[in-house]
Amino acid sequence: MRSPKRHGSRRKTKKGSMSRIPVRLNVLMGIVILMLVALGWRLVNLQITDSAKYKTEVTSAESSIEKTNVQRGLIYDSTGKVLVTNKGSQAITYTKPRTITNKQMYKVANQVGKYVTIDTSSEQLSGANFAMYYIQSTKRAQKVAKASGTAAAPGTDAYVNALTKYVEKHQDQFTLTDAQLNKALIFQKMANAYSLSTVYLKESDVKQSEIANIGERQSKMPGVRVGIYYTRDYPGGNDIKSLIGATSTSKSGLPSDSVNELLTKGYSRDDIVGTSYLEKQYEDTLKGSKGRVKVTTGKDDKTTEETLYAGQAGGNLNLTINNKFQNDVEQILKDNIPSGYTTGAYAVVLNPKTGGVYASSGINRDSSTGSLTSDALSTVNQANVVGSVVKPATITTGFMNNVITPQNSTLTDQPIKVAGTAAKTSWWNQNGSGNMPLTADKALMMSSNTYVMQVMLKLGGLNYYEGMSLASLPTSVFQTMRDGFSRFGLGVKTGIDLPGEITGIRGSTSRSDIGKALDESFGQYDTYTTMQLAQYAATIANGGYRIRPHIVQAITTRDRNNNKITTTIPTEVMGTVNWTAAQRQMIWDGMNEVVHSSSSYATGTGLKDIKPAVSAKTGTAETFTDGHSTLTSSLISFVPNSDVAMAIVVPGVDQANENVNQKIAKAIYAAYWKDVQDSGSATK
């Protein structure tokens, strides 16, 4: 008989065990319920919340959005004459689907290659694409596997990688027929495209039979379409390209220096894009916006197209350039450029009131062969020492720093002899026999070197005396002069709407180079571009306002409703000289006397017969070209109270051609009054 105590103990153990079972079940049931709730919530998301998203993804397997090219914007001159337009030709394009295998692309390329022949002589098949195309054929792949001894299973990544590497290293062992090469090059174009981007398979000399065959078989060639390829056309001749710039082609592809940036903006690798000058500067305006077409392939393999957005052609540029005048200026430079060691001739003509450039022409000359090359942008990307044309700026800097005044500007022209530096003189007073007192305007008329050197010394706190030392002349005098010059646009960027503008070269300002401050004062040290000289001339002509020069005067675009929108480029004042009326008048008087004085010392009298009358400042800088002593002949000029100012630079001339600047200026003024403006309206 069992003890009651033990019997009671057993019942307690059984009861405790039974009490723990429901707890476990409850936990398990709770977990199941949570999982069911999560599953239900996910089903709600799939069927209701995210249904549109997944429907789109399913549909995308059957349809794709293709981009269609639009015409690039046109470019007109100031008279409304079209300078750059587009020439369209039919092309075969390919839009790469979002998901496609190399095997599928191989089949499409072979289909296209049956009916489209591209120029295999001008296309290069890369080793990687040769290998990739070659092994897509099962028979050829087996041949390569045998030759390479590949042990990997066919169809695996290891198998494909092994075969590809082997073919790349032993390409001479494997050959393609001409027909296969044609298809392989088409395959390469497709393979190099990004997902959903459009590339050209053939963009020139497309035959009607090729177009017809592609059109009839589009369902078998997903992504392949007949499109339009636009190229730039120049109705007035290609000479304008030296100013307008160039565009890429489908073969050249996007510029290597900006390809990544352009790809992030939605360009395809073979899109046309501006690569230089105005085409590059105004790329965002000229490119337009591509159209979008939804292409759907049904179960019967028939394709349908739905235009989602027709696209918008690029905006048009209306230039300040007068094409007839631009061509005439270029011809004038060609006709008058000296021989010998002359390296070029450059001219800019603009409106001093608005900054609009009428002509910007440059001719580079190979001094060894004499060959000439048009280079309009050399006016902004080539700089030269320009000589005495800077003297109005030096004298104005003296005015602005109160070291001379219009009422007290007399200094004696005399040879400058300072310790440790060779004597520096004016062209007509080399031995001191012609010493004479000069006011600022007379110093400009006679182009006195020693006058502006003495102004420079005063800017540094010194007065000239023979044999003086420059040891106490502060090097800051360089910056003082440069600050004054920059008020007119010398030594700084003009702000012209062209890429690649340079500022020129500024010489050293170290203590050991302090003697160069003398040369700086009369334009024989720092270098300046022709465009800077033109802005300088315009600043003097308009009374002291530094106007930003520009070549585009208006941009015409259309909105999505095809409404025309014209944006006019406003006149932009970049700074002012802040001179007084008396200071300005003395500079004007001096430049007028350069041309119209009866003095035998006047340096610009070759221009005195020009009507309407002009003011000017000539310049001659001593240079060396190919080891030979040469000159840079320069000039700035304007018609007072009128709409024209100009700058001319001809580097590398010999002594006999020192005045070629005036010869060119006379011809340019004659062309201006003929091409651009009636001379009778000059000051109206």
From TrEMBL:
Chief location bin: membrane
Cleavable signal peptide: none
InterPro entries (alphabetical): Beta-lactam/transpept, Beta-lactam/transpept-like, PBP_dimer, PBP_dimer_sf, PCN-bd_Tpept
GO MF terms held by the record: penicillin binding; peptidoglycan L,D-transpeptidase activity
Domain of life the protein comes from: Bacteria
One annotated GO biological process: regulation of cell shape
Sequence intervals crossing the membrane: 21-41
Domain Penicillin-binding protein transpeptidase: 346-669
Key words of the record: Cell membrane, Cell shape, Cell wall biogenesis/degradation, Membrane, Peptidoglycan synthesis, Transmembrane, Transmembrane helix
Protein topology in the membrane: Single-pass membrane protein
Cellular location(s): Cell membrane
Penicillin-binding protein dimerisation domain ranges (all copies): 68-306
Cellular component terms (Gene Ontology): plasma membrane
Family under the similarity heading: Belongs to the transpeptidase family.
Protein name as catalogued: Penicillin-binding protein, transpeptidase domain protein
Biological classification of the source: Bacteria, Bacillati, Bacillota, Bacilli, Lactobacillales
